[in-house]
């Protein structure tokens, strides 16, 4: 199995020509982010970080990930509605992590007040890596049976880059053709991630039942990834041009949101049908009590939340670890074949709760820190600990409740390939890279009813080999496209 650029040998001047075309293609076609500068510069769009060519994914690996998504969607919905499982799983985390404690307290307030909206909307992304079972060098031939699909995390809030990923395959078809690479059309599969996610938002808006109500995007005040968010909005207008979309921060929701006695949420004269959160996934998003007030206000309302507080809790790393325990999946899934298909993607996961089980996990980590990742209950990249940082953490907190805010995970060693990454601060050279596969899914349902459940596309996130973190906006990785081989 060769990489998609294995037999490409172009002079520098031709690569530069292709790069110039690709950079301007991304701007013309909305594969872009805000610059992140100051003042007027902050409003300018620049190319999102991307790979010049697609990276190889075995077709069987991508199919395995895609076919599992409807089962993961339903599983996470069921877990989110199981109070006893959430409480038992998170009881020690919320003692060690103030952010998780605040989320949990909002969840309890919603329960005590009586749930005003029985339906939940999930725009999920399930992230996997291709773990390499043998020592294979960058660009070397590898067969699908030398790779195994392993889940990295399940994103339940602000599952980003569905918008840009739908466009990127068109760019990679162009760059491969420009360098003379022959390929079948289905080797870069059609990707309708933005379209599928937008359909989920529209379905929730329809379900709410008020044609005059608005869809609220909750965003950060300095949002760079606005183009990705807008793509979902644009796709939604193809079928629902009548939907009005408002963009507000949690602080603005606190200041201007009005919660009626019957639970309806208003912004001025506009009733809110759906709240789509692209912010609020980490502690830094709540700098004051005002942001927490805005979050509680929306959770107490009749608006359909994406995600609800339960869905955000179920996306925590601790739930991922608890579901990997023997017998845990069987509480929610009766079909043994589905249980096995999901469990086969789990990496080795270890609790760090105080006690014998956690002590054993700490001992494993200290004995071989390079074989593990230490994960807090956060999304968005830039939070995990590796290697020496693991040793330093346990040297300080080996017998402290602080460790209960983390889980320990087997480190995945993905197959290395070669590609050119187009990203500020990274030399434009043929580099050793590794990739992560994300699968998008939509779930809309209540405890009694499943309205929508489908898989709706994919993303590929690629980074320089040896880079620990993988966030794109956080600055670690680039957008990519799978090039399928059998």
Automatic annotation (TrEMBL):
What keywords were assigned to this record?
A: ATP-binding, Glutathione biosynthesis, Ligase, Magnesium, Metal-binding, Nucleotide-binding
Q: Which E.C. number(s) belong to this protein?
A: 6.3.2.3
Its needed co-factors are:
Mg(2+)
Q: Which GO MF terms does the UniProt record name?
A: ATP binding; glutathione binding; glutathione synthase activity; magnesium ion binding
Superkingdom as given in the UniProt entry? Eukaryota
Specify which residues bind Mg(2+) according to the UniProt entry for this protein.
153, 155, 379
Residues that coordinate or bind ATP? 153, 317, 375-384, 386, 409-412, 436, 463, 469
Q: How is the cofactor bound?
A: Binds 1 Mg(2+) ion per subunit.
Name all Glutathione synthase substrate-binding domain ranges. Answer: 214-314
Under InterPro entries, the record lists: Glutathione_synthase (IPR005615), Glutathione_synthase_a-hlx (IPR014042), Glutathione_synthase_C_euk (IPR014709), Glutathione_synthase_N_euk (IPR014049), GSH-S_sub-bd_sf (IPR037013), GSH_synth_subst-bd (IPR004887), PreATP-grasp_dom_sf (IPR016185)
Note whether Zinc occurs among the keywords: no
Entry binding sites for substrate: 125, 229, 461
Q: In which pathway does it act?
A: Sulfur metabolism; glutathione biosynthesis; glutathione from L-cysteine and L-glutamate: step 2/2
Q: What reaction does this enzyme carry out catalytically?
A: gamma-L-glutamyl-L-cysteine + glycine + ATP = glutathione + ADP + phosphate + H(+)
Cellular component (GO) terms are: cytosol
Q: Which NCBIfam families does UniProt cross-reference here?
A: glut_syn_euk
Q: Which family does it belong to?
A: Belongs to the eukaryotic GSH synthase family.
What does the subunit section of this Swiss-Prot or TrEMBL entry state? Homodimer.
Instruction: Please state what the protein is called.
Output: Glutathione synthetase
């Amino acid at each position: 199995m060769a990489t998609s650029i294995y037999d490409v040998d172009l002079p520098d001047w031709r690569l530069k020509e292709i790069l110039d075309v690709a950079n301007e293609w991304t701007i013309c076609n909305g594969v872009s982010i805000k610059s992140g500068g100051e003042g007027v510069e902050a409003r300018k769009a620049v190319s999102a970080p991307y790979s010049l060519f697609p990276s190889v994914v075995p077709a069987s690996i991508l199919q395995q990930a895609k076919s599992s998504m409807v089962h993961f969607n339903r599983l996470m919905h069921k877990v989110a509605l199981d109070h006893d499982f959430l409480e038992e799983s998170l009881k020690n985390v919320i003692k060690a992590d103030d952010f998780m404690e605040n989320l949990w307290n909002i969840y309890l307030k919603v329960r005590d007040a009586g749930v005003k909206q029985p339906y939940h909307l999930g725009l999920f992304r399930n992230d996997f890596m291709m773990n390499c079972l043998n020592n294979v060098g960058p660009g070397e031939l590898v067969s699908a049976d030398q790779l195994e699909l392993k889940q990295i995390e399940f994103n339940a809030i602000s599952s980003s880059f569905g918008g840009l990923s739908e466009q990127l395959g068109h760019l990679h078809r162009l760059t491969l053709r420009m360098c003379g690479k022959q390929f079948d059309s289905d080797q870069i599969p059609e990707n309708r991630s933005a379209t599928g996610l937008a359909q989920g938002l529209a379905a929730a808006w329809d379900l709410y039942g008020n044609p005059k109500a608005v869809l609220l995007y909750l965003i950060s005040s300095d949002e760079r990834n606005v183009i990705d968010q807008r793509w979902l909005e644009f796709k939604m207008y193809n079928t629902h041009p009548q939907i009005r979309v408002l963009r507000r921060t949690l602080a603005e929701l606190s200041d201007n949101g009005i919660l009626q006695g019957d639970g309806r949420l208003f912004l001025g004269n506009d009733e809110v049908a759906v709240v789509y959160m692209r912010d609020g996934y980490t502690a830094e998003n709540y700098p004051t009590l005002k942001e927490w007030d805005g979050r509680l206000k929306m959770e107490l309302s009749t608006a359909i939340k994406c995600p609800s507080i339960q869905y955000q809790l179920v996306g925590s790393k601790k739930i991922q670890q608890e579901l990997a325990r023997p017998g845990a999946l069987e509480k929610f899934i009766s079909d043994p074949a589905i249980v096995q298909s999901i469990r086969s993607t789990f990496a080795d996961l270890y609790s760090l709760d105080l006690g014998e089980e956690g002590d054993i996990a700490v001992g494993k980590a200290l004995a071989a820190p390079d074989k593990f990742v230490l994960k807090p209950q956060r999304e968005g990249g830039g939070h995990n600990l590796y290697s020496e940082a693991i040793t330093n953490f346990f040297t300080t907190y080996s017998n402290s409740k602080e460790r209960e805010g983390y889980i320990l995970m087997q480190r995945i060693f993905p197959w290395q390939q070669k590609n050119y990454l187009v990203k500020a601060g990274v030399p434009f050279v043929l580099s050793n890279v590794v990739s992560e596969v994300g699968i998008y899914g939509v779930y809309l349902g209540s405890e009694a009813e499943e309205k929508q459940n489908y898989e709706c596309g994919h993303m590929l996130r690629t980074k320089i080999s040896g880079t620990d973190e993988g966030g794109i906006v956080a600055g670690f990785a680039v957008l990519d496209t799978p090039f399928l081989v059998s």
